[in-house]
Structure formats: C-alpha cells, structure tokens
# Entry
Amino acid sequence: MQTTVMPNYARQPVTFVKGDGALLWDTQGKRYLDALSGIAVCGLGHSHPAITEAICEQAKRLMHTSNLYGIAHQQALADALVRITGMESAFFCNSGAEANETALKIARLYGHHQGKNQPTVIVTEGSFHGRTLATLTATGNPKVQVGFAPLLEGFVRVPYNDVNAMAAVAEQHSDIVAVLVEPVMGEGGIVIPDEDYLSKVRALCDHHNWLLMLDEIQTGMGRTGQWCAYQQTDIFPDVLTLAKGLGNGVPIGACLARGKVAELLQPGTHGSTFGGNPLVCRAALAVIETIEQDNLRQRAEKLGQRFYQGFLKALEGTAGVREIRVKGLMIGIELDKPCGQLVSQALEKQLLINVTAERVVRLLPPLILSDAQADEIISTVSQLIRAFLNSNL
Ligand SMILES: Cc1ncc(COP(=O)(O)O)c(C=O)c1O
# Structure
C-alpha cells in the first residue's frame, strides 16, 4: 500500500493519544505501561506538569528568534548544564545525531589546528551515534551503514571495552585526534564496560593529546543515577553530547566542551537555525529543575537496583537467559537467541518494551516510575521471557 509517510520505520500497530507519567492510552482508550520512555526521552514521564507549564507559558510569550540575537533561556540552559556537568561551554541543536556531528566537527577542527590534515576519530564496534552520514559512519553496526556508501573518511574502529586496541591504533595512525565512545552502549545492547574503562581511555587521550568525546545521548540526564555516566568516575571528557532526556520530548541536543576546545567553534564555523530556541531551552531548564527538586538521579539509581534484584530473582535458573545488565534505568536482559517477537507480545499485555542487538530485551523506563510499576514490569517481562524460552526449546 502506498503511504504518505516514508516506510523507513517498522511500527507496532498501535497509536497513542494521551500520556500521564509512565502510562499511555491508545486510540481505543486502552491503557499501557511505558517501560521505554520514547527510547530514553521522556525521563520525567508523559505530560509532566512542570514541563507542560513551562512549554505553554513560553509558547505564549516567544518561541523563536534565531541565533542572530541573544537568547536568555539558551544562556540560562548553558549555565545550568555547565554547572551540573563540569563542562565549560555548550552548543545547542535539535537531535543526538546533530550533537555528535558537532563533536566530530570539533575533533576535525582541533586536528587541523595541530597540522593534522587527515584528522581521524577512534570509534568502537557495537556503538550507535546516529543516522546522518558522519554519525552512521561512526556507528559500529554495519546494518546502519549498508546502502549508504561511500562512507566518510577519518574513522578507525576498535572493539568496545578494549583500551589496548585503542593504544595499538596510535602506533599505526599519526593523525588520530579524538576518541568518540558511549559510557554504556545503549542500542548496542546495554553493554557496560569495565569500571576503569573510561579512566584508561582518558589517560590514553591525555598521553596522545587526543580529545575524549563521550556520547551520553542515551546515558545522560539522570538515567544512570548521575547527570552523566562519567560522573561515576573521576574523569571529565573534553566533549560531551546530550539529547533524548534533555527535553523530555521537546527536540533538543547539546554538545558541551571543556578546556582547549571550549571556544574552538568561532562565528561562521557551525550553526543550526532552530538550535537552542527559547521554547526548547525553557523546557530543558524545567527538566533540569525537576530532576534536581525531585531527587530523580537518586531515584533512578534505586529503581535500577530494584530492577536488578527483581529480575535476578524472577529469572533465576532460567536456561536461555545469558546476562542481566543494569546501570541505573538502563536495563538489558540478554537471551541466547533473537527475541524481537517479545516486543509485540509485551504490547498485547499493554506493556512497552524494546529489543535491541537482536537478543537483548531493553528497558528504559521513566525516572518517575513507582515501585509498584517497576514490580509490574519485572513480573510481566519475566513471564514473557520464560514463556518465550520454553516455547522455543
Ligand atoms: C548513544 C546515542 N547516540 C546518538 C543517538 C542519535 O540520536 P538521534 O536519534 O536524536 O539523532 C542515539 C539514539 O538512539 C543514541 O542512543
């Protein structure tokens, strides 16, 4: 059938018309529990009153003027992000891919300033950084790249969680300028690296004068129990990208920088028409305020422990469950076989979940989830997994 929307998404046969907290209602009035938050976007749940009020108030006052003029809410948001992350400057855009494009442009510019004419960025296998040409080239999943050759030059790939492989690259390439890496791989299957991975990558970057660029688009904004996952270590990145949870549904991305690259992007080097307009910045400010006021980082950490313990218990001894991985409210249950059909089976039970990397059940529930809702998710997902594994014996 011809459709007027391009058929680039495989959609579930349901349309939602209303949301409240962790709950959604479809066109038939059926209620669902949302354990995915629009893929880590609505961390404060749906229709959060503080965010709704900020958006409505700002929409009535002023939405857009362009970056040709001062924008007070953009300045306030940059100040707030600098305060909570320890970074020094911020550029605003509209999506995660665009935030990563900004990071990659910073890396190239940084390289050229050092006389490196083929500035090259180290990226990892299994990563996901977006769908634009540069970010799909950076992405470590061939499925994202197929059909879109020629890919961009200037990338070299190493296995995730392998600092020695990164160090070896330094021996072969003289034009490395940066490392771009996710602190926990989200689309890649909730892959949590060794505790000292980021510190070791930081040390390697310092040794070679490379930039450490962290993609915290999925891990950021409180989801892992801190504003950003690197805050559980003692390091800082040089470049940090955020999007998803930053706007709770309002499209906004940010690229933050620090130290020698904080002021690299000078007038004329980069821009985005909508980037950081009064409407989205006001919404993002309300998101930060709410996460702070309601202690939602601590809540994410606590809920994460509840999920971990709950799934350990509920799935104990279940053959076919390979690993349960939890970092705050990034939850992955790896099975020993592809399990995409669990998504529609969960939907039938009025629960939204996701499967990524073919065999990893991924949950990214909102930070405002109640204990009872968490327990309901644990119980439904565990039952579905057990039934799925039994039926496939
Ligand atoms: C880690 C990471 N980086 C980048 C992106 C791309 O973000 P967007 O879809 O907003 O362009 C995603 C999206 O899933 C992501 O998870």
Q: What stands out?
A: The pocket of pyridoxal-5'-phosphate is lined by residues 95-97, 100, 128-130, 182, 186-187, 215, 217-218, 243 (CB under 6 Å). Residues 16-34+295-391 form a domain with the Aspartate Aminotransferase, domain 1 fold (CATH 3.90.1150.10). The chain has twelve helices and 15 strands.
